[in-house]
Amino acid sequence: MALIMQYISNLNRYMDTHGDPRTKDWPMMSSPFPTLIVCVFYAYFVKVIGPRLMENRKPFRLQNTLVIYNAIQVVLSLWIFYEIAMSGWLTGHYSFRCQPVEYNNNPRTIRMVHACWWYYFSKFTEFIDTIFFILRKKQSQVTMLHVIHHGCMPLSVWFGVKFTPGGHSTFFGFLNTFVHIIMYTYYMLSAMGPQYHKYLWWKKYLTTLQMVQFILIMVHAFQLLFIECNYPRPFVWWIGMHAVMFFFLFNEFYKQAYKGRQTKYENLLMFILQRHEKNDKVKVNGNLSSANGYVGPKWQTVDRTETNLTNGHAGNFKLNGLSNGVTLGSALKNGKDIANGHGDIMQRKVQQQI
Question: Where are the transmembrane segments (predicted)?
Fold first, then answer.
């Protein structure tokens, strides 16, 4: 135990010696261990403690809380984006090709240092996302991607604020806060109720934007491996490899969430059609959600004369000509079936079933 404490003391001494003196006495900046402890506790809580606490409890309904929380996140992200932009990237003082850290007390430079710390702070506020999932018993949304992404970011950003608060690496925060403005706007609209879901057709494009973000960060960081720039090489690898990791994690999520979903809804739609042919009623428990973000009614009954699969959507398939009260059979027979390039195939399948 004494040996461990000695090691921690030496590590803290090293970081104080080589860290940026401007942030030395700022909250949580004296040592990486408080941040590490919080991150480890976060992962343990959302994967173990939280689900156990909620196991025998009813899920909380947090609609208003979610709207307010996401609105605050939009405002916070917008403000940090503005601060990073106006103290560096959109002022003409920063070079997208090579930007060393400015270790001085110029007001513009100090403004960037403060923006870096607030970006670090915002990584903790994002933990609340997961806590809401736990309280609402949405454990399936606490994925590996979600926990890794939220759990490692505070510690990753800590090193940047401690050693390089400014310069080239702040491009990560500049892009990331811009994406978060859009992302939390989406979450806020989603939390406001089903009446807003028809405006959320762009969900998969948000995931695409997140992946584009990481590609830009990779290119921006790794370019310093091929040109001379007075910027610490270890931080080039640190930022670049984070972008690589998150790109592949988000890419895997995209394939599972949108590519795999088409087959699921295709099968569901064909099942409904088969039951429809037999004049059976079909009750579907759960949300029929298209990949474009539209969320249909939770309970839907389908027979020859009645359907709630209206408003132009059935699962992943957009059906032109649908209106309230129209039968599923006639809607499919008379409408065009557009399913991400599979329209002709699905049209033939539908005609065969009907």
Answer: 26-45, 66-85, 117-135, 142-161, 173-193, 205-223, 235-254
Cα 108 → chain centroid: 31
Q: What is the DSSP string of 92-154?
A: TSS-SS------S--HHHHHHHHHHHHHHHHHHHTHHHHHHHHHTT-GGG--HHHHHHHHHHH
pLDDT tens, residue by residue, 214-272:
999 999 999 999 999 999 888 899 898 888 888 887 777 777 766 655 555 555 566 55
CA distance 157 to 8: 20
Interacting residues of 55 by C-beta distance below 8 A, sequence separation 6+: none
CA dihedral 158, 159, 163, 168 (to 10 degrees): -100
Q: What token pair was written down for 147? A: 């926990």
Task: Collapse the DSSP code of 302 into the 3-class scheme (helix H, G, I; strand E, B; otherwise coil) and give the result.
Answer: strand
Q: pLDDT tens across 92-125, in order?
A: 899 999 999 999 999 999 999 999 999 999 999 9
Residue 174 in tokens: 């500049």
> Which amino acid, residue 272?
I
Locus of tokens 């942030």? 23
Strand-pairing partners, residue 317, are: 314
pLDDT in tens, 127-170: 999 999 999 998 888 888 789 888 999 999 999 999 999 999 99
Q: Which of 114, 149, 180, 342 is catalytic?
A: 149
| Residue 180 falls in the annotated catalytic set | no
Return the residue matching tokens 């018993």.
137
Distances (CA, A) of 122 to 78, 81, 261, 284: 12, 12, 32, 40
For the chain, the first-to-last Cα distance in angstroms comes to 74
